[in-house]
Amino acid sequence: MNKIVRTALSTAAATLTAFALAAAPAHAARTLRTTIQVATNHPVGANVVYFKEQVEKLSGGAIKVEIYDSAQLYKGSEVPQAVSSGAVDMGVVLIDEFAGTIPATGLLSVAFMFPTFEIMAKAANPQSPVRKEVDEMIRTTGARVLWWQDYGPVQLLSKGAPIVNPADMKGKKVRVLGKPSGDFINALGGVPVKIGGSEQFIAYQRGTVDIGMTGVTAIKSRKIYEVMNSVTITNHAQAEFLVVINDKLWDTLSSQEKAWMTEAAHAAENKLRAETKGQHLDAEKFIAANTPMKVIHLTPEQIKAWQTAAAPAVDTYVKAAGEPGKRLVEEVRKLY
């Protein structure tokens, strides 16, 4: 009797094991920890959420993305090192953060280099010489670019008198995104102070700087209109964020995993670039209609004066970036 029971139990156990193996996925799910500096309701953060949804759907859950938003893990300036070292798998980083070690990557913040959304889109196209060269430069750091996130043009903010003329910048401390935007401020006689995106509100509130620099979508999402009085639409630079992944980790992915990641990344990039101009205009309208902040539009003559005053910043960029920088400037100007 005991032998019969043991045989039955053994058969049942074998059957259950077979069912469990059949139900289990062929490979354990791969989880990618991702750090971003903004909230998930910010256009840049929402775009990463969209990528997460797409790649998890395409992979049937074989790839999962964990998002740590609002600089919970790392500040923007810390992301390149965190990703390249493998401390975190993926991260969102302003392209300017690479300009300290690779000066040519600061191209997008060179004053008035990209006068329209359309020219920026052409330069950022995955097939453009500009995009290919920048991506390869960044890969040398140990971080591979998955996709570019179009953030739109950058403006100037003031708490006191509105900023209208280049002379208004002289002697003022100005928040900058990195070295290229710092060169712009130096050319105008201002004092550049690098402040991360997540630290802006406090810096403006405390008067750490006299003049701010950011996009109108950030003014809206970060409620910067509570601490600054006016925004001048200069469109003097284009801000692009990059979503990067540890390059060694990428090499461990299977060809199928890479295909899922690439398809989801392309979808996320195309979606955001198609939406950015509308989001920019909507944010500008929101600020003008629903906040105490004054929105200042410059005349073509005033913009020309800014461009003339900022011209030395282009020379400074080329001098710092060398031959690669000169080549990138030439490629961009072909797009005009």
How would you explain this protein's 3D organization?
The chain is of the alpha/beta class and 336 residues long. The protein has helices at residues 2-23, 43-58, 79-85, 117-124, 129-139, 179-187, 200-206, 216-221, 247-252, 255-290, 300-333; strands spanning 30-35, 63-68, 90-94, 143-158, 173-176, 191-194, 211-214, 230-246, 294-297. It has a single domain, classed as 3-Layer(aba) Sandwich (D-Maltodextrin-Binding Protein, domain 2). The protein is built from 11 helices and 9 strands. Helix 2 runs antiparallel to helix 10 (255-290) and helix 6 crosses helix 11 (300-333). The chain is globular and about 60 Å long. The termini are far apart.
Sum this structure up briefly.
The protein is an alpha/beta fold and 336 residues long. The protein has helices spanning 2-23, 43-58, 79-85, 117-124, 129-139, 179-187, 200-206, 216-221, 247-252, 255-290, 300-333, and strands spanning 30-35, 63-68, 90-94, 143-158, 173-176, 191-194, 211-214, 230-246, 294-297.
List the helices and strands and how they pair.
Elements lengths: L1 H22 L6 E6 L7 H16 L4 E6 L10 H7 L4 E5 L22 H8 L4 H11 L3 E16 L14 E4 L2 H9 L3 E4 L5 H7 L4 E4 L1 H6 L8 E17 H6 L2 H36 L3 E4 L2 H34 L3
Parallel strand pairs: 1-2, 1-3, 5-6, 8-9
Antiparallel strand pairs: 3-8, 4-7, 4-8
Helix pairs in contact: 2-10, 6-11
